[in-house]
Design brief:
By secondary structure, the protein is α/β, with parallel strands linked by helices. About 35% of the residues lie in helices and about 25% in strands. It has two domains: about 180 residues, CbiD-like; about 190 residues, no CATH class. α5 packs parallel to α7, α9 runs antiparallel to α10 and α9 crosses α12.
Length: about 375
């Protein structure tokens, strides 16, 4: 059965990548189908859903149950070509009749596998199911439409559950965000675009916003796992409150300024952060890869001779280039140049509204450079991170 996405794709790395649909779309479609079965007393094999993006989905309904006061069914998640941990899970909706009244009221809650919010700062309040605003709007609209079609007025209860969500949550950021017991029901467009940068930036923003609402004024940020490992080995802090910004250094600084943070301590590997010294704020190799050029040009400014500069340019990795500079006793002066440029570009990106500290390291050579009040920023972040 066609799901409405045939022939729809995005281009990533010169490849066609199929679109999918979100857990929010699954929940709304399941709720719509369960409501229709409840009032019609007949099984439904498929259901249509218009997503907020305007794409019509035709979705197969599975695992249906119809009882006197409630109906249950599920929709299988299809994430397209996106590497989504929720791909293939069944999203269930149980729709139950409540007290009749002149007005129809839809009450939405989460069942097994849907997480509960335990910290402030997220879209839902503490204690509520982690079903985001747009999916709630979609569920409400679809159920109200069925109620109107079937001439029902009164309370209607919708419980969304994702049985596999309990285990899947362990593979997500949910525990870090204060969502316990399951996964979130997400989606703003209803459609999953494979490997979406916007989705990654959005997840970083959610984490930063939660920390801000919980009182954080300073953040510790690393691009990825190397930075996190270095922090764990060298800074006695709660890493659950450190933020990974991936390749999106510029966007992370933008969001910090927007949210009113006072300062950031960046800790990252030379292979990523050296790009900032060239004004490159998205450090993914697809955006730009001038690591050796930046390292070599700063070595030249620091006094390196032509042979050293040529050897650095011919290096395959920053660690190899660092080794050459170390052997030629020009590393410290080179890193002073690089750290000043990193700080310059980060400060300009923040419009000088953030106190910035940057520590750059190498797995092979250890700490290579630091700039800003690293110790002071560490004390300020540690005070909050230990709460």
């Amino acid at each position: 059965m066609k799901n409405g996405l045939e022939g729809k794709y995005v281009i990533k790395n010169n490849k066609k990548m199929a679109l999918g649909y979100t857990t929010g779309s699954c929940a709304a479609a399941a709720a719509k189908a369960a409501a229709l079965m409840l009032f019609s007393r007949q099984s439904v094999e498929a259901i249509d859903l218009i997503t907020p993006k305007g794409i019509l989905l035709h979705l197969k309904v599975v695992d249906s149950v119809i009882e006197e006061t409630y109906a249950i069914c599920a929709i299988k998640k299809d994430a397209g070509d996106d590497p989504d941990v929720t791909n293939g899970v069944l999203v269930y909706a149980k729709v139950t009749i409540g007290t009749k009244s002149p007005f129809t009221k839809v009450v939405i809650d989460g069942g097994i596998g849907v997480g509960r919010v335990t910290k402030p700062g997220l879209e839902q309040s503490i204690g509520e199911a982690a079903i985001n605003r747009v999916p709630r709007q979609m569920i409400t609209k679809e159920v109200l439409d069925i109620c109107e079609e079937c001439d029902y007025k009164g309370d209607i209860f919708v419980e969304i559950s994702i049985p596999e969500g309990v285990e899947l949550a362990k593979r997500t950021f949910n525990p870090r965000l204060g969502i316990e017991g399951g996964i979130s029901v997400l989606g703003t467009s209803g459609i999953v675009e494979p490997m979406s940068e916007a989705a990654l930036i959005s997840s970083i923003k959610v984490e930063m916003k939660m920390h801000r609402r919980n009182g954080a004024e300073y953040l510790v940020i690393s691009p990825g796992n190397y930075g996190a490992a270095y922090l764990a080995a060298n800074f006695p802090i709660n890493l659950n409150k450190a933020v990974k910004c991936s390749n999106f250094v510029g966007e992370t600084i933008d969001m910090a300024v927007e949210m009113g943070y006072k300062g950031i301590l960046f800790v990252g590997h030379i292979g990523k952060l050296i790009k900032i010294a060239g004004g490159i704020m998205n450090t993914h190799s697809r955006s730009a890869d001038a690591r050796m050029e930046i390292l070599a040009s700063n070595a030249l400014l620091a006094g390196a001779d032509r042979g050293t500069v040529q050897a650095v340019l011919e290096s395959l990795t920053t660690d190899e280039g660092i080794k050459i500079l170390k052997q030629d006793h020009i590393l410290e002066a080179t890193m002073t140049q690089i750290m000043e440029k990193i700080h310059f570009y980060m400060s300009n990106r923040a419009y000088h509204n953030l106190e910035l500290g940057v520590l750059v390291f190498s797995n092979e050579h250890g700490e290579l450079g630091r700039i800003g009040d690293i110790d002071g920023l560490f004390r300020k972040t540690k005070a909050w991170m230990e709460e």
